[in-house]
Amino acid sequence: MTTTSGTTAVPPTGSGRRRRWPWVLATLGVLGAAGYTALALSAGSTTPADTVVGGVQVGGLTHAEALAALRTGLQDKAAAPIPITFADQSIQLDPAVAGLDVDYVKSLDGLTGATFHPVALYERLTGALERDPALRIDTTALRQQLTLATQSIAIKPVNATLVFTDATAVLTPAVDGSTADIPGTMAALEGSWLKASPITGAVAVAEPDITTEEAQQARTELADTIVSGPVAITVNGKSFKVSAASLAPLVTFEPVEGALEARFDEDQLIATVRRAGTKAKVLTAGRDAVVTSSEGKFRVTPSVDGLDIVVAGTAQAIQKAALSTERAVTVASKATPAKFTTAEAKASLPTGVISTFTTYFPYAVDRTHNITLAARALNGTYVAPGETFSLNAHLGERTAAKGYRAAPVIYNGRLTKDYGGGISQVSTTLFNAIFFSGARIDQYTPHSFYISRYPEGREATISWPNVDNRFTNTTKGGILITTNVTSSSITVTFQGKKTWDIEATKGPRVNLTSPREIRDDSEGCVPQSKQDGFDVTVGRIFKQGGKVVKTEYLTTHYIPEDLVICTNPNAG
What we know:
- The protein contains 14 helices and 36 strands.
- The strands form 14 sheets. Strands 22-30-29-23 form a 4-stranded antiparallel β-sheet. Strands 31, 32, 34 and 35 form a 4-stranded antiparallel β-sheet that branches.
- β29 (479-485) and β30 form a beta hairpin.
- It is elongated.
């Protein structure tokens, strides 16, 4: 080809383009990356447009704005008591005390700031994001508070029971209890707090120690055996039986290590065996010697020793027999001497009068009748050395059936009528015989106001069952009590062995108080004369061989006897 001088040649087009494409692509790649980066950076300045955290709308907000909005939206809810239900019961939990809190900053993690992950960037650009708030949980505090709060809703299980009723073993089935499942409830809180109200707590079954099946086993193996028949008991070569009906009430079934065990009331079991043995005349009670007097002579009815079981080991042996099919046992025996033997009775016989006392009274048919009746019951009573005598126990309750009549008695400072009225005269006379014998005074009660026919401070009323006249014979011998009643007096005499010479003293009346005047229009009114109230102290000086050994003092407080004027014509 011909060329013209000075003209530049154009290189081939195809070859030049191939050399420029890598640069163009590189340039375009740089420009694309820069745009993606710019997009990622610009998208991270705010939260996605439709973002909800824990039910609070925080979309399109900067991090600071979203944080403020989230705090405002959740703080009241996060501070409110948390209701938790367990079946039909419920509790409330204070989140602050229970270690529950919202981590507001962590709840917004990843919602703002640059991200180059395509999926995350896509979610930011398209919006519509919903999440739960992040929580801070102190598991130790939460466990402690749940444990405390759920104690009140726990239902204790009820053990199955076995009880004998009329020698039949009655079984009451067990009932399961319930308690809060703490780990399960903690998991429910972690998953549902701030989302659900109330939260459903987890419940665990609390099983009883004794199930119905275990009680049924005890009934078959123990109860049915106990009442399968009588237990034969041999004592000193002779036998008697204790019935199943007598054994059953003595048994209780108690839980021991997940099973019911039969437990006998050992004291009652011994008493039951003694009663059965005595009824069968295999066991016998010791009989005390008895001292009587007639025409000035004493007679001693000899004592008789008895036969009893040896208590040690007996109850256990009988229990073993009652729980076996053999149902027979031999137990040890022992002689039981009388408490007051023939020798002791003979040694205690009185040698003379050691005290006697007489009181006087105006004749009143009903009152005198009661005095005579009580004195007759007291006459001839023998109190052995060391024995305690109770007038109430000796006479028993005073009733019409026993022949007592209604006569005046003192009640709440006023005279009224009751069966046995008047026998305080017997009690006071007896008290003075006790006083001068030197025997120990155990119980006595003066009248509430002073009655002039009695010695001041040395008198004793009596009332069934608690106001008693009791003494213990602390003299050297037995005391034979004799009585004598006339139409105007009663004498009580103690025959015994002289131990003390007793001298009585009396101090002056002190702390005098004046009576009131009362007019009473009731038909049941009993008139009273007036008498000052006062305090007085009497002494009991014990002498032997003319020397004072000891002195006792008794102080009595008398209230005033009010003047009672009965205005009802039918009174008295």
